[in-house]
Amino acid sequence: MSFLQALRFGVRLLVNKRIFPGVAAIIRNSRGEILLGKRSRKMITYPNVWGLPGGVIEFGETIEQAIKREIKEELGVDSEFIKYGKPHMDLPKKECPYQSVGLAVYCSIKGTPKPKDETSEVKWFKPSEIKSMGLAYDHKEILKQEGII
Description:
The protein is globular. It has four helices and seven strands, in the order αββββαβββαα. The model has no long low-confidence stretch (mean pLDDT 90). The chain is α+β, with helices and mostly antiparallel strands. Strands 4-1-6-5 form a four-stranded mixed beta sheet, with helices on both faces. It has a three-stranded antiparallel beta sheet with strand order 3-2-7.
């Protein structure tokens, strides 16, 4: 997304005051670590901040299609749906002026994740490490709500 496209998107969000449907992937490895992606410094919301892979559900997409697309775009790997987590709501704040209603989705991945598109770095974290981190959006609350941290 170019800066101009991102700016236009941001203006539409502020003017339209819409609530966006979103998905956040919880991906764990065999050691119980959680996969996080560091958002690109070019992102308008939460640049250079770690977060769960995910994003907005596009019109006509199912939740499973959306999370598979987001994982492929952000991590470059295919994924498999495991189960739904709990719903969550992220209210507007200084770092992100729009509101979203989303669903945590547990997934597995095939292959080695690599940073793509909106992600500058990808790393596995122990739940104990995440407890002291600041995460993008409401991702820390999602992990707490799911009983992971």
